[in-house]
From TrEMBL:
Keyword field contains Signal: yes
UniProt protein name: Peptidase S1 domain-containing protein
Keywords noted in UniProt: Signal
Organism: Saliniradius amylolyticus
Domain Peptidase S1: 22-271
Amino acid sequence: MFKKQLIALALASCACSSAMAITWGAPDNGEHPNVGTLLFVQNGVGFFSCTGTMIAPRVMLTAAHCVSEAGNTNDITYVRFEEEALSGIGDYASLQDWFNNEWMSTTAVIAHPDWTDYGEFPMTYDIGVVILDQPYYPSNGFGQLPPEGFLENLKGQDRRFFESVGYGRQGTLPPTEMSDYERYKGDVRLLEVNSYLSGQGEASAKFSNNPGVGGGTCYGDSGGPTFYKETNLVVSVTSFGWAKNGNCVGNDFNYRTDTTDAISFINDVLVQYGN
């Protein structure tokens, strides 16, 4: 299932149900200011939440299912980079005042042109971007993109050290059950890139979601980055995973950024919006 989360907002509370979040992870503690959260409405329903990574001053990389559904792009999208996404919500007379003062507005959202709501699975094309109205310059720099075929060329220990970052749920089973709307990080391991579910090396990569080998993702993490080691290299965006009885206990499948389809899409966006 995909990892977008529906969020019910009130001036003092947030009840969550979104794309997946980091499980068995830890608070980000300022490590990834280039990673933010999206709040958006799709086809009249919302707010949903996802995660994204800044790759240029106005360009946030995310998942296609975070920007488009049933052929329709989001009705409205807001972006924020605070670690605690709900901070300040009680300081305003209305929800709209909070959005106007604490969130960034957006010019457009763009899904990969071949995105069909997983209609061509396993070739999902689950990659998209959000274009901000105003530029944002993260203190740790922009996310960088890998060369084509990067993940296939990793061997041995180089496949063991990745980090997922997101604003999703921190767990769905005791004792880790938490749904704070905050930025978390978790270590993951690359398991494979050449199975049917991953599109035979042309679409997704399978990462661990297991407390024995690190963290994983859950509802609300959709679109968030998988960083290679302790770098800004974004090798994939969180896409879908297996959730038994709604629990985020399976492995994650993240859409790769090192494929021909992803590279072509991102480059086209950067030509238009990258400066």
